[in-house]
Amino acid sequence: MTNSRTPAFSRRGILTTGMGLGAVGVLSACGGSSATDTPTATGDGGKGGYDGPKVDLAFWNGFTGGDGAFMKKLVDQFNGEYPNIAVSMRVMQWSDYYTTLPTAVTADKGPDIAVMHVDSVATNAARKVIQPLDDVASALELSADDFAPVPWEAGIYNDVRYAIPLDVHPLGFFYNKTLMETAGLDPDSPPLDLDSYMDALDKLKGKGIQGHWASPHLFTGGLSMQSLIAQFGGSMYSEGAKEATYNSEEGVKAFTWFQDLIKQGYSPAKVDQDADFLALQNGQNAFNWNGIWSLNTLAEKTDLQWGVSRLPNIGGKNAAWAGSHQFVLPTQKTPDANKDQASRVFLNWISQHSLEWAKGGQVPARNSVRESAEFQALTGQAELAKQIDDLVFLPAVAGIGDAGAEFDKAFNEIVLGQKDVKSTLDGAVERANKILEANVKKYG
């Protein structure tokens, strides 16, 4: 997370998650069904460590940003503590990762351990790219009591656990304190409800400051919209994602509020990708809803007076979009009991030591780490962790990313093109529902 254009969890990361979902379909076409009978990762070890023969473990992920150094540090520390386990980490762009992994698994050349974005887990589970982990969680004595509920539940697909959460990375509210003072606002008391937020925007506007730049791009305007829909009491999809539902009354209210930021002069009409975040840093934009990955970028701006808080509650309900990195164990055609156990030890150890990972701009999913005094000392991360029970994930349904493109297109048209909200959403939902229906046949 060294800069706004290449954050550890980047626009590229989530955008290519959708690409990866489609690419996973290649697995079945390439003979992925041969993995159907692969046994799950079972056994009776892991929690107490590993004392078997030396094993080499391959660990794949897409941590090409600043967070990669934090994970590398953890891997090196683990290797130092476990001389009979040698973990090698392969890092690649997420777009490459989500296409390379299924192919490698099919060829029985996949890694022993991997990390996935939470919205990729269901699709890869449906395609047998990753193994069920109920027995792994049982062997490690992990339960819902050990993790925040939202990311823990998100690792379940069709009543079977396929992932163990490492972190969450939510949106937060970043504000320029200097601009707030210019408008006569208290820089240490950011507006966190609808009335105070609109009052602040009016005061900023009175000083010639467009206070909230409405980005028409997925990062981070589209993620803000997903948060707003939930805040207004709506949802992106029905239960089980049988239908898209963001054209509901609640969805229309959320889109209208965001579109009105432009109509009422609180935002420029056309905001380029990342321009809203750069404007915050350059003293042009007072308020910016952005990801936790922005913390380290802003910390480098020593001459910038800024603050961070949970997202303002605009619609009446606390809610914030979030992503999550989750540990998965790729399917092995020729399982190795020693590697199975060593892999469990590794993922459990990283989870227990995820304070170091949090420093890269994450909120640990593990309660013991998140609730520790050491984590609370990471003030930005700790502030955004207050949203842990209000986070919004996409449903754990195979192929969910395939339908997301219709939402993204509608969002862009409504914000950038000022198209009619209801009719644009109705058209997007109609197209998305056809994709969701096709996915039932595609993924089972």
How are the SSEs ordered, and which strands pair?
Elements (H helix, E strand, L loop, with lengths): L10 H19 L25 E7 L5 H15 L3 E7 L2 H13 L6 E5 H9 L7 H6 L9 H6 L1 E2 L2 E2 L2 E2 L1 E10 H6 L11 H13 L11 H14 L17 H15 L11 H8 L4 E5 L2 H6 L6 E4 L10 E4 L1 E4 L8 H16 L2 H4 L4 E2 L2 H4 L2 H4 L2 H7 L5 E2 L7 H17 L4 H23 L1
Parallel strand pairs: 1-2, 1-3, 10-13
Antiparallel strand pairs: 3-11, 4-5, 6-11, 7-8, 7-9, 7-10, 7-12
Question: What would your notes on this structure say?
Answer:
This protein has 444 residues and is an alpha+beta fold. It folds into 2 domains: 225 residues, Periplasmic binding protein-like II (D-Maltodextrin-Binding Protein, domain 2, 3-Layer(aba) Sandwich), CATH 3.40.190.10; 198 residues, D-Maltodextrin-Binding Protein, domain 2 (3-Layer(aba) Sandwich), CATH 3.40.190.10. Strands 7, 8, 9, 10, 12 and 13 form a 6-stranded mixed β-sheet that branches. Strands 2-1-3-11-6 form a 5-stranded mixed β-sheet. It has a two-stranded antiparallel sheet with strand order 4-5. Helix 2 links the parallel strand 1 and strand 2. The chain is globular and about 70 Å long. The N terminus is likely disordered.
User: What's the helical proportion of residues?
Assistant: 40-55%
In the CATH classification, which architecture of the largest domain applies?
Answer: 3-Layer(aba) Sandwich
> Which structural category fits the helices and strands?
alpha+beta
Counted up, domains total 2
Give me the count of strands: 13
CATH class category label of the largest domain: Alpha Beta
Low-confidence segments, given as residue ranges, are 1-44
Q: Main β-sheet: number of strands, strand sense, barrel status?
A: 6 strands, mixed
Q: What distance lies between the first and last C-alpha atoms, to the nearest angstrom? A: 38 Å
Q: What is the strand content?
A: 5-15%
Quaternary state reads single chain
CATH topology of the largest domain: D-Maltodextrin-Binding Protein, domain 2
CATH superfamily of the largest domain: Periplasmic binding protein-like II
Tell me the Rg in angstroms: 22 Å
Give the CA-based shape. globular
Mean pLDDT metric: 91
Number of helices: 19
